[in-house]
């Protein structure tokens, strides 16, 4: 893993000697010319969207393969090894103490976010590298700005080959996968597919080793086809699908609170709640790379659906007094166009537009009991109501910026973007951006920047705008109204330094401060495990990140530590999700957001040894957290408490064979998660917008075998 601040992106490959095979008459077969053209087009595409002045954490293919779990590790587990990234329940992560607000890009193209849930849309197998970009982002990055997860796809590199793999172990884990890549003429392709089954699809709500009713089945597929049309142009098509089926884990020994059809008892370990998540996406990208101008135009489409089904016997109504059968869907399509123009040796202009149309639908069938004025159940026969809705909304964006090389050592990147949202809220903002990068020596880099950010609320998550229909029932809210969710507006300041030290050692320090209006947050407020957004009128966040890495020959080490917090005041939207006393206190006091974590750490390393039959790789990594927020022990301050700190250590061992015969291209691995079997809570079920307790995974053993061909 490498952390860096990029000063300037190169347009063309230079200083690299390519060896081209020649025939006896001195001619060539032309295949390497295609490879060189493809690499030049890749560099030209990257030069359109550089992260000038922002901070990057790069996970290249070698890092991804050597980590515990290798290519079978989930994307969120990979990102937890970056500075300032916090672990949360349901597979979620937080970057610099933000809730969600992550943008995912494949080869520079935004893929609209899916309806949140447990499954992950992107499989690290499809990536040649994964980069997390944070800080004060240049003007080309909008909408989701706490972090950009940029995946550079495996384009096949115009070589024929692939791999087939089987991975499995504890918790009934079965994970076969396969990839294939190659080329024919100017056409380049890559395809991957995987299947995952285990009995720990969602975090265990208890500290036991094995969760109850927690099986998952997940399918992922990805395809990439690229055709080089000429020396200066390329057409690329790629897309994928992710389908996940999840049992909702049960927490035994819960106390029934209501009576259903004369039944007053139910074993909470036998509840049967399930969730299904589906996402399909596709992108077509045309790229032109000329002498002075580079362009990429990319239409895209994404469909996402989440279905939650409650217990068919109504057991969940006996415990909570209500349940929901929900279906949320979203169809988004649009176009992204980006370009750069070299104005002079000192100035490079970058510009672009973005448009997205999204159609969301929600259908929620709720069951509940009527209650009297005292809130007591008046009948044991459940009533039901259906709340349906749909919305068509648009996002618009345009930006222009200039990369000004003031001197060979000093670069100023300045510009602005204008964004507008037309959906549940109708807002817009002009957002200036500026970053300064100073590199006095080849080993030292300073950066400082300011960004004005505009974050529209996630339209696909807004399913409820009124709760009046539930008045006088066990589904009723204390607050009978809710204002519409608004876009978040932010002033973001960031500065840092990176120092390379002779011998392969690099150290970096970064500090940031954010001032927010209409701070966006999300919480779980129903039985369906889909989050709902709301706003704090005011908010702020700050943090400091220290990172270090060392690479020397076969040894690679890194460590990160971050100190930070985020607070908000006065909830001004979706008030019906909250209790009266919570709203009253928060109206006049800043409180920690539920995902604010004081200390966050990660680290690890790998050692590669040539053992005579190939390469033996030992790897280890860890994550540390000082606890997400919880209920105040005194019962006064919302999110006034926190969970104890924890450390989880993971170990990986891999033997890669060089041969002979069938052993060539064979790899065998063994992994242990939570090596010391430390039991810890990620959540305890308390706090603002927190639905249920979740524990980290207990010690588990896995093994895998991969054959490359």
The CATH class turns out to be: Mainly Beta
The shape is globular
Mean pLDDT across the residues is: 91
Helix fraction bin: under 10%
Q: What CATH architecture label applies?
A: Beta Barrel
CATH fold assignment: Maltoporin, Chain A
Using only CA atoms, what is the Rg? Answer: 26 Å
What is the overall number of helices?
5
Which structural class do the helices and strands define?
mainly beta
Which blocks of ≥5 consecutive residues have pLDDT under 50? 3-29
- Major sheet, described briefly? 22 strands, antiparallel, barrel
Query: Total domains, how many?
Result: 1
So what's the oligomer here? single chain
Count of β-strands: 35
Range of strand content: over 45%
Distance between the termini: 27 Å
Query: For this structure, what is the CATH homologous superfamily?
Result: TonB-dependent receptor, beta-barrel domain
Description:
The chain has 709 residues and is mainly beta. It is built from 5 helices and 35 strands. The chain has helices spanning 31-48, 61-66, 75-79, 315-320, 580-586; strands at residues 2-5, 55-60, 85-87, 93-95, 102-106, 109-110, 127-134, 147-153, 161-169, 173-184, 187-198, 216-230, 233-247, 274-289, 293-309, 322-342, 347-368, 383-407, 410-422, 426-441, 444-455, 488-501, 505-523, 532-552, 555-571, 591-592, 599-610, 614-625, 629-630, 641-642, 646-657, 666-673, 681-684, 693-695, 700-708. It has a 22-stranded antiparallel β-barrel. It has a 6-stranded mixed sheet with strand order 1-2-7-8-5-6. The longest helix is centred in the N-terminal third of the chain and has 18 residues, at 31-48.
